[in-house]
Amino acid sequence: MKKVSIIVPVYNGEATIARCLDSLLTQTYPCLEILVIDDGSSDRTRSVLEPYRGRIHLLCQTHSGVAAARNMGLQRAAGDFLLFVDADDFLGCDCVERVVQKQRESGADLVRFSYQLVYPDGRIQEPIDSFTEEVFLPKAAFTEQIYPYFLSSIRFNAVWATLYPRELLAGLTFPTSMKTAEDAAFSLEVYTRAQSVLLSMDAVYFYVQTPTGLTRRGLGLLDKYRANLQLSGYLLEKLRVWGMDSFPNRLKTYLRPLMLTIHKLRRLLQE
Questions:
Q1: What is the reported pLDDT for 218?
Q2: How many domains does the chain divide into?
Q3: With pLDDT > 90 as the criterion, what percentage of the chain qualifies?
Q4: Are 139 and 87 in contact (CB under 8 A)?
């Protein structure tokens, strides 16, 4: 049986990390290792994690950001497959079993599965970009059905809700110079390396929507703009590799940081 490593970075997650870990420890798939990387939390996160010792691998670092935390997990993971789970999210009890079965049946390099949004008032709903059918995409289809999303949306940016074979990620790390969108930079390289992907309708990842304060909103907006400028540089390089280096695509790439920032600002103003 193939081992699956689940990498969970956490920073000041005292309110959510227990629910996350409980969902991982009750998975129906038996061959798991759970790596929790505490990114120098200053709250009670470490105390909450103590009762889980022996059932998880707890790694600690000084506060260096989510990219560095995930990189530590990548270095220590011993599984045949990897999953990333954020500390405030959780999985359905048969998530790992279902996505491993999907990979075994399809032979796809990547299995990208659907998710559900969880709101503070308890509401759960599917996002507007849910997959409407299960599709196996070979490399030849990426130019039309995967890569364009990196130019105009964030559909494939997140690293959670994806099963990765460990060998595909060999030598790959998250850029620690980016305060946000580091997952998008990572995903650009992953989808460049991958030869196939299965898009699954199974909504077995629960993405928790958490409010942020006004100060963090302002910082987040500026950080996001700067990070997306850096991401545009990575994307311009990939356009050449993908054979998509046309003027319209370069223009979309140049405009992308501004459009994403405007979109985020509109969302903040509506809250």
A1: 43
A2: 2
A3: 79
A4: no
Euclidean distance between CA atoms 70 and 75, whole angstroms: 9
Range of the structural domain that residue 140 is part of? 4-208
DSSP code per residue over 216-245? HHHHHHHHHHHHHHHHHHHHHHHHHHHT--
Same domain, 147 and 225: no
Same domain for 201 and 224, yes or no, is no
Q: Cα–Cα distances in Å, from 170 out to 82, 167, 195?
A: 12, 5, 15
Q: Which two tokens stand for residue 100?
A: 């491993």
Q: Is the pLDDT of residue 238 over 50?
A: yes
- pLDDT category of residue 186 using cuts at 50, 70 and 90: very high
- The residues near 203 (Cβ < 8 Å, ≥ 6 apart) are 113, 114, 115, 116, 126, 130
Residue type at position 217:
R
Report how far residue 239's alpha carbon sits from residue 151's, in angstroms, rounded to the nearest whole number. Answer: 10
- φ and ψ of 115, to 5 deg: -145, 170
- Residue partners of 91: CB distance under 8 A and separation at least 6: 23, 24, 27, 85, 204, 205, 206
Q: Reply yes or no on whether the pLDDT at 94 is more than 60.
A: yes
Average pLDDT over residues 129-149: 92
For 50-72, the pLDDT digits (tens) are 999 999 999 999 999 999 999 99
- Block residue for tokens 């998880």: 56
Quickly count: other Cβ atoms within 10 Å of residue 233's Cβ: 10
